[in-house]
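dumping this here before i forget
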Amino acid sequence: MRLNQRQIEVFNAIMVHKSVTAAAASLRTSQPTVSRELRDLEKQIGFDLFNRFGKRLTPTSQAQLLHSVVARSFVGMEEISRVATAIKGHNAAHIRIACLPAYAEAFLPDVVHRFLKARPQVHLSVHSLGEVALRHDMTTQLFDIGLTEGSYDYDDATTEKIDAGELLCVFPAGHPLTAKSVIDPQDFQGVAFVYYSEEDPYRDKIDEVFDAAGVARHFTLETTTATGLCSMVAAGVGVSIVNPFTAAHYAERGVVLRKLSVRVSYHVNLWRPAKGLRSAHADQFVRLLRQVTEEMKQRFKVLLAD
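structure:
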């Protein structure tokens, strides 16, 4: 089965505009034509994309799943259009960054702010997804910079590690364990613990620490993002161990940080295209990224001094 571009356009338009009439207007065609093309699409794929209530269409769960993939292809097309417009206006300075949500929310804003303050003419776009989806997108889309926790090999690309320090313990304000400056794995015995999803590359490393110490944590919640994890900790749901970028972001947002006695190093994997495809602006962004990382590590040396 192979869908054509027109079928994808019709499906996307209906999902975005939430009606056949509005979708037809956006595609500059008639409502009966869009309805017919939708029926043909459903017949070809073998399942209904919408529940029909009179003239109303409600997307099925299958339609939502399919559109999660389709929408990304249209984001790529919009990106091409923006670049074409920039080239036409003689302003093609553009950096595309792929990263985890934790970096987009708790680390990159500082880097982006400093970068754009010095280079306001450059257009930046940040593409953030979970580790598994991000790994897929980095193989199918063109990015100037990729930032992940896991280490992956890509054709026509290079990767290198950025040392960001170590994982840190995070507690809600007033938690009894904050009386200690350094936390031992045994201190987590039976303590309510907020945890990463199974796809997180550091979950196994944390498990190894507690397995070696024979410690059984009480798992209260699993979440897919480090920022979500820290928000849960701040609300008093439990305690956890998190990357230093997110820890720094939440240090003044209801979370107390402490060292873990067993050091678990944390690295960001920096992905760049082959040297012939790199831009000078992206090089400058990476230098600033490294600078901000070093500044964070120095702040932690003072903040977490024994």
